[in-house]
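Re-run with default settings, no changes from the original entry. Doing this only to confirm the output is reproducible before filing.
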Amino acid sequence: EVQVVESGGGLVQAGGSLRLSCAVSGFTSDGYTIGWFRQAPGKEREGVSCIDRSDAMTYYLDSVKGRFTISSDNATNMAYLQMNSLKPEDTAVYYCAADLAAYCTEDYYPREYEYDFWGQGTQVTVTS
């Protein structure tokens, strides 16, 4: 059984940093893709970033480029989203998702339907 568990959310002032962690277990292959999504109140969920563990290709939403960094530790099956220079508009519930069939390149917006395995979400609140 595949499990995805996020952690690391919290309350931070604008300009601050947070690191989200995602623990993935249960895949029979290491070549899965990790996606980070977020959903702000009253808005649809959007793809923020992804990383293909097989070739380290990454994608970033334009609004987070230069501020967020996704990484994957293949030895521990952990993924991270380092979020710097946070803004109030980054406030949302952040979800980690994983799938063997999900696609990720620098130009490919993460599609929710490509990810079968999701974490429970972690709240990130940025105050001004």
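The chain has a mean pLDDT of 96. The longest strand covers residues 18-25.
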